[in-house]
Amino acid sequence: MTRSVPPVALVTGANRGIGLELVRQYTDAGWKVISCCRNPDLATDLHEIKRGNTDVVIEALNVADPTSIDALVSRYRGQPIDVLINNAGTCAGHVNTRLGIGGATLEIATSVVSMRLLIDPMTMEDSGTFRRYDGDTIAW
């Protein structure tokens, strides 16, 4: 059976770095992407991806604010979401982002390709699991 509607991804922290690249790659793969960030008006790169693409939605979301979370949940209640990537955060990792912290050598696009190699084959049986970068399950 062929799916008649595109799969849906919701990405937090979508205005720059890894989140922005996730939006770009999922959009390029034909997904509908709900792109969330604290200040959509300032997310110029995200708006560039959205330009002319009805499958990209930009939403205001502050993951540290329960009221903001509740508002987003209300807007999408009943909407199936195939992949949720909670990327929002303030710490720098090992990926070379605009934050420029730590001398990271891994480029954003390479990091996201690797993440998608782990995420895309997941099924409902994987729901609720935590995974390391290498695919190993982390007990919680």
List keywords for this structure.
140 residues; alpha/beta; 4-stranded parallel β-sheet; two-stranded parallel sheet; 4 helices; 8 strands; 20% strand; globular
What does this structure look like?
- This protein is an alpha/beta fold.
- The protein has helices at residues 17-28, 44-50, 66-76, 108-119; strands at 8-12, 32-37, 56-60, 83-86, 95-96, 106-107, 130-131, 137-138.
- The strands form three sheets. It has a four-stranded parallel sheet, with helices on one face. Strands 5-6 form a two-stranded parallel sheet. Strands 7-8 form a two-stranded antiparallel ribbon.
- Helix 1 packs across helix 4.
Pattern of helices and strands = EHEHEHEEEHEE
- Strand fraction band? 15-25%
Strand order of the largest sheet: 3-2-1-4
- Return residue spans where pLDDT drops below 50 for at least 5 consecutive residues: none
Total strands: 8
Helical content, roughly? 25-40%
Structural class: alpha/beta
Compact summary:
Helix content is 30%, strand content 20%. The strands form 3 sheets. A 4-stranded parallel β-sheet has the order 3-2-1-4, covered by helices on one side. Strands 5-6 form a two-stranded parallel sheet. Strands 7-8 form a two-stranded antiparallel sheet. The chain has 140 residues and is of the alpha/beta class.
Write the layout of secondary structure elements.
Layout: E1 8-12, H1 17-28, E2 32-37, H2 44-50, E3 56-60, H3 66-76, E4 83-86, E5 95-96, E6 106-107, H4 108-119, E7 130-131, E8 137-138
Parallel strand pairs: 1-2, 1-4, 2-3, 5-6
Antiparallel strand pairs: 7-8
Helix pairs in contact: 1-4
